[in-house]
Fold each of these.
Amino acid sequence: MPRATDSVGEFTRELLGRGHTTLRAGFERSVRALRLHGVRHWFRRERDAFRQTLKTALACAVAWELAKYLIYHGDPQVHAVLAPVAVLITMQVTIYQTFRRGLQQVAAVVLGVIAALALGAYIELTWYTLSALVIIALIIGRTLRLGTQVNQVATTSLLVYSLGRGYGLERVWDTLLGAGVGIIANAAVAPPTYSSAAAKDLADLADDLAELCREVAKALGSTWDAADARRWLDRSRSLFGDSQDTEEVADQAEEAVRYHPRRSALEAEVNRVDQAAICLSHVAAQLNGLLRGLYDLANGNRGLPAATDVPEALGILLLDAGRALNRFGRLQIPDRDSRQVLEELKVIITAADDHQLSAIEDMLPIGAHAVERWSVHGALLDGVRRMLYELDPVAGPHTLAIPPIAPASVASSST
C-alpha cells in the first residue's frame, strides 16, 4: 500500500507540472504571436492588459497613501497593506462585479468584526472556540450569499479575535477605503470592457487551431501513424476546451458593459466578439470530429483495416483552413493592416473552393472496403469544408464576427 506522503508528493508534482505547462504555453503563444504578426500587432494584443495592470498598481499606491495618513495618521511603524489588498480584490472584475464584490467585501469584514467582538467578550480562545467561530462565520457568509468573500468573514473574525478590537476597527476602515478606491478607479479610469480580453483570447485560440491544422496537413502529405493521430486528437480536445473558456470570456464582456459609461458604443463590439467565439467553438468541434475520424482510420475502427492513406487534397484543404484561421484571428484585433488581411482571407476561402472540387475527384477509392473507405473519406472532407464555411467572411454564418474595417486602413501586411 503506498504511503500518504507518496500520494502527496505525486499531487504536488502534478500541480507543479500543470503550472509549468501553463507558463510554457503562455510563453509559446507570445513567441508565436510575435513571429506571425510582428511586435506592433503583439503589443496591440496586450495593450489593454498592460493598461489594466498599470491602473491597478497605481490604485493600490493611492489606497496605501490614503490609509497611511487618514487611518494611521502617518505613523511610520504601521504598514497599511489591507487597503491595497482590498483594491486588488475589488478591481480585477467588470464594473458590475466591482460594485458587487466591493459591497460583499465590506459586508464580510464588518460581519467578521461583529462576530469576533460579540463572542470574544464571553469566551476564551481555544481550539474548540476557534472552530466554533469559523463555523459561525462561514454560515453567516453563505447565508447572506457573499460569493467569493465568504471566507473573509471567518478570516476577519479570527484576526480580530486574536489581535483585539483596535485591529477590527482598522480593518473595517482599511477595507472601506480600499474598496472605495478600487470602485472609483475601475469605473472612472479606462473602465474594463473585457471585449478586448476576449478578442485576444480568440486570436490566440485561432492561432492554436491554425498551428494544429498545419501540423496535420503536413503529416498527411508524408508519413503518419496511429500515435500521431492520438496526439492530434488529444490536442484537439484540449483546444475545444479552450474554446469553451473563450465563450465564457465573451459572456463576461457582455456583463462588462452593463454599467459601462459607453455602453451604447460598446454593444456592437461585444456582439461581434460573441459571434467570433461561437465561430471558433464550431471550428474547434469540427476539427475535433475530423481528427477523431483520422484516429479511427489509423486504428482500424468501424470495421475497416488500419490505414493511413487519405486523399492528398484533404491535406491541402487543412492547410487552407490553417491559413484562414490565422487571418481570422488576426482580424479580431484590428490594426492598420486589417483591410489587407481581410482580402487575404477572402482569397484563401475562394481558392479552397477549387481545392474542394479536387478533393471530391480524389475521393474514389478502389479495391476492398472501397465503399466503407469512401464513407470515411467523405466525412473527413465534409469536416474541413464545414470549418472553411464557418470562417467565410462573405457567405459564412458568422459574418458579424469580422470587425468593420474602414477603407483608410489599407496598408501593407506584416504577416
Amino acid sequence: MTLIRHLMTGLAGAALLATGAIAEDLTIVHGSVGRDQEVLRSQLDKFEAQTGHTVTIVSMPESTTDQFGQYRLWLSAQSTDIDVYRLDVIWAPQLAEHFVDLTEATADIRDQFIPSTLEGQTVDGKLVALPMFIGAPALYYRQDLLEKYGQEVPATWAELTETAALILEGERAEGNSDLQGFVFQGAAYEGLTCNAMEWVASYGGGNFVEPDGSIGINNPQAAEALTLAASWIGTIAPEGVLNYKEEDARGVFQSGNAIFMRNWNYAYALVQGDDSPVKGMVGVTQLPSGGEGMSSAATLGGWELGVSKYSEHQEASIELIKFLTNYENQKERAIVTSRPPTLTAVYNDADVAAEQPFIPLWKPVLDGTLARPSAAAKRKYNEASSLFWTAVHNTLSGNGAAEENLSRLEAELTRLRGPRW
C-alpha cells in the first residue's frame, strides 16, 4: 500500500470513527483476464478512500472450471475468509444457498440494470448476485489480410474455413510460417463448452441440455458442426489450440500470428491498445452461422458479484458490490477493458461510444445470446458441461468420430439426469 493510499484510508477511517461507523477489512475473490484485475484494484482504492474499509483481492486462475472447484470448497466449509465472490453467469442455480439475498438491499437500483441480467441471477425469488458486466463472444479478424487477398468477412463457418486456408497458403508462400488461420478456446474446460455450443447451435443442432431438460444432442446437425471443427486442427488451427484458453488465443492473435480469433469482449481493448502489434488492423463481427437460413450463435457470458452468507461483514460487502456496479465504475470498466455494462444507461454514454464504439454496437448481439443450460441442469450443470466438453475435445483430438462421441454423450447425459435433473 502506498503512502498516499495509507493517508487517504486513514482520513476516511477517521471520518467513519467520528460518525460512529466501523472500518472493516473485506476480501474479494476474483479471477480475471486482460486488465480486469488492474481496473478492479483501482476501483477498490477509491472505495477504500471513500469508506475507510480495506479490501484484499484473492486472485484465482484463469480457468473458470478451476475457480468453481475452489469456490465450492470454501463455501462447503462455510469459510468466513471470503466476503465477496466474483461469480460466472451460470453459477447462481448451483450456489444460491451460500449467498445473501440481495433483493431488499438493491431495491433502489435494480431498475437501472438490463432486466435479463437480473433474471439470470434470481433463483426461487432470491437475487443471488449483482451483475458486474456481460460477456458475448465475437469473431475478430485481420482486416488488412482480408483486403490483401480480396476476401469478404466470412458469414458462415465453411466460408471462414475456406478464407483462412486461402490466406494461409498465400502468406506462407511469402515466408510467414508462424501465421495461423483460426484460434479459439479448445482446451478441455468450460471455455470449450461455450465454443462448441456456438458451433452446434449455429448448425441447428440445439443444446447439450435443452431448456426443458431433455437431451437431443445426438443429431446430424451437431455431428456436422463438430466434424467441421475437427477438420480445423492441424490445418487452419494449430494443434496446440487443443490446450488454448482465452489468453492463449489472444496472445497468438495480438502478436499478429492469426487471421481469425473467437474471443470475448475484453480482448477488443487489448488488441486495439497502443502497444498492440495489430492495432488498427482488426475488425470485429458476429460469429459465423452454419449456412444459409441458419443463425449465428453467441454464448452468454459475464460475471456477477455475490456476498457470502458466511461473511462476517455482510453490510460492508453489499456496499462494496453496489459501488463496483455503479454507473461510474461500469463506465470506466467499459472504456478501459471493453467489458459490456449491465446498466442500460451506460450504453448511451457518449464517452463510451467514443472510446469503445464496439460496445453500443454489440448490444443487439448481447440481447440475443445463447444461454448455457445451467437452469435446466441445476446442480448437475458442471458435470453435464464436463461430459459435453470431453466429447467435443475427443472429437477435435481425433479420438473417435463426432457421431460416435455424440452417441456416447447422449447415453452419459441420460444416466446423469436420471428421473430428473
Amino acid sequence: MQALAAPTLALRLGRPFCPVPPSQRFTRQQCATLRRRQLSAAAASSGTSSPPATASAKESVERGLEIFAAGDAEAALALFQRAQGQAPTPDEARAACYNAACAHTRLRQWQAAVDQLTRAINEYDLKLSVALKDPDLEPLRERREWLAGLAIMRGGINDKQYMQLRSEAKAPFRLTRIIFLGGLAVGAGLGLLIITGRLVAALQGGEGAPELQETLQNFGINSAALAVLGFFVYRDVASSRRDQAVIAQEEALGQLQLSLGGGSRVIPLAAFRGTTRPVIIAGSRSQLSRALAGSEPFQAALRERGVSVVPLELSAEDAGEKLRQLKAEFAGSSGGSSSSKGFGGGAAAPAAAQPAPTAGLTTKDRKWQLKAHDEAEWQQWVQALKAAKGITADAVYVQVQLDGTVRASGAGMPPWRQLVDDLPELDSVRTKFTDGVGL
C-alpha cells in the first residue's frame, strides 16, 4: 500500500501503530511485531475475524490498516467497505476504496480489486501512478482484469486508442497523408462539381456559354486529380484498417492466459513482453511431440534468444498420422508372411516407434515450456488466425516478438533452425533496434 494525500490517514503498512510509550519504542519492526501479536491474540480470543466496531469512516480506515498490517485481509476489507458507507470525506473515501483494492488483491479477488481501484481513480482523484508503483498491487498488475481495467481508468488508455497509436507507429506519416490528400481530394471534387455545371452549359451552347474545349480540358484535369487522390486516400485507409485488424488480433493474443507454478499463478501472455519471444505450436498430440523433439538440438540457442514454447493440443491425433499407420500396416502385410502372426508383426512396428502421447509436454523446464491456462480460449484464437490467413492445415505455429507483435506464422511446425538464424540474442544490439517488426 502507498500513503495517500490525506494527512489524517497516513497510517500505512510501512508505518505501523505502536501502542507503547515513546521511551520504550526501539525499532519500527519491533512495534509492528508487537501490534501483530496483540491483534492476533484479540482475534484468537474472539474466535472470529469480524471487524471491531467503529464510529466514523476515518476510524474504520485506520483500524482496517492496522488489521491489514497484522495479516487479516478479510477483516480489514470489511472495515474499508464499512468506511465507504459512513459518509466519508473525499480523502477518506479515496483511502477506503484504494485500501479495499489492496485487500481484494491479497484475497485474490481480482475483478473486485479493479472495481475498487477504478472508483478511487475516477471518482476520488487518485493518481494512476500510485497504483502502478504499489508492491501490494503487483499480483493484480499481472492479471488480465488489470489490463481491461486500464481502459476505463482515468489516465489509462482504452483498446481503441492503443490500437490507433500502434497503427500510427507502424506508418508514422499515414494519418498526415490521409488528411492532406483527403483535403485535396475534397477540393478537386468541389471543382469538378462546378466544372460539370459549366460543361453542361457549354454543351447547350447559346449566348454567353463557356468555351467548350477549355471546359472539357478543366473537367478532365479535375477528374484525373480526384481519381488519383482518391486512390491514395483509399489505399492508406485500407492499409490502416488491415493494420488495426492485425493489432486487434495481437492484443487478443496478449490477453490469453498462461499457468505458472502448477497453476497457482495465472497471468496473461502480455506480461511476458520485453523478456520472451513466445512460439505457439498448435496441432495434434503427435505433431506436438515431433515438434518439441525437433527443437531439442536448438534449445540452448533458442533460450539465448528468449524463445519459449506454448504447445496447444487441438486433437488427440491427426489424419496424417493415421494415414502413415495405415501405409505401414499395408507395407507390413504385403511384404511379410500372409499369416496372422506376420500381419500382427508388421502392424506393431510403427506403433512402437511412435512417440509417447504426452512426451515433452510436461517434463520440460517451465521457462522453456509455458502452459496454456484456458485451452478453449487459445484454440478459438488459433482458429481465428487460420481463418484470417486462409490456413487449412491441421498444425500451425506463431512466433511472437518481444513487443507482442506477430513476426511469423504459418502451417506446419516451426522452422527451428531458421528461427535461430533470424532472431538475434536478447542482449544483442539488433534486438534493441529491429525486434518487434510484424509481418
